[in-house]
Amino acid sequence: MWPKGFEAFINESLPRKVAAQVYLVESRYDKQAGKIPEVILDAPYSEVCADPRGFLRRVVAFAHSRGIKVTEKENAAQRIPEQFRQSKASLEDEDSRMILATLEQLVRERGEVTVPLLP
After folding, report:
1. Dihedral through CA 57, CA 58, CA 64, CA 70, nearest 10?
2. Which of 6, 69, 111, 119 could be cross-linked to 2 through a Cys-Cys bond (beta carbons 3.0 to 4.6 Å apart)?
3. 60 and 70 in contact (C-beta within 8 Å)?
4. 62-110, pLDDT tens digit by residue?
5. DSSP letter assigned to residue 43
6. What is the pLDDT of residue 116?
7. Model pTM score
8. Contact criterion met (CB below 8 Å) for 41 and 68
9. For residue 117, what is the DSSP state?
């Protein structure tokens, strides 16, 4: 399954295909978030890493506020770490640098998206 609009990239290079998928998914998110913000829960990576248990409490509260039943498994909270070590994307290899450059090119060609494309 490809993101909507990906057909235009089928015959492109692998870095351009990867960058296009990232761009198209983020762009679609932007469009949907503007239409239905009440069903979107923002989850900044740094916050999830800093307090995974707190984040899951937010998810449950968010679901409950929208009438969605969430059942916690027995002792699940104790199995969730208090924190995760936050990692960042590495641009040390040539493939990653090429994908990033291609992603930046797509932004120039098609416009910005409001969600960050990379951490």
Report:
1. -40
2. 6
3. yes
4. 989 988 888 877 777 778 888 888 777 677 788 888 888 898 898 899 8
5. -
6. 56
7. 0.59
8. no
9. S
Q: Which amino acid is it at 1?
A: M
**Alpha-carbon torsion (84, 88, 31, 10), positive or negative:** negative
The three-state (H, E, C) secondary structure of 88-101, written as one string: CCCCCCHHHHHHHH
State the greatest distance between any 2 C-alpha atoms of the chain, in Å, as a whole number. Answer: 50
- Annotate 46-115 with DSSP letters as a single string: HHHHH-HHHHHHHHHHHHHHTT----PPTTHHHHS-S----------SHHHHHHHHHHHHHHHHH---SS
C-alpha span between 73 and 3 (Å, rounded): 33
Q: Residue 91: what residue type?
A: L
* Closest residue by Cα to residue 53 from 15, 87, 81, 92: 81
Q: Which of 61, 53, 59 is nearest to 77 (CA)?
A: 53
**Domain spans of the chain, in order of start:** 6-110
Among 44, 42, 20, CA closest to 99: 20
pLDDT in tens, 11-22: 999 989 999 998
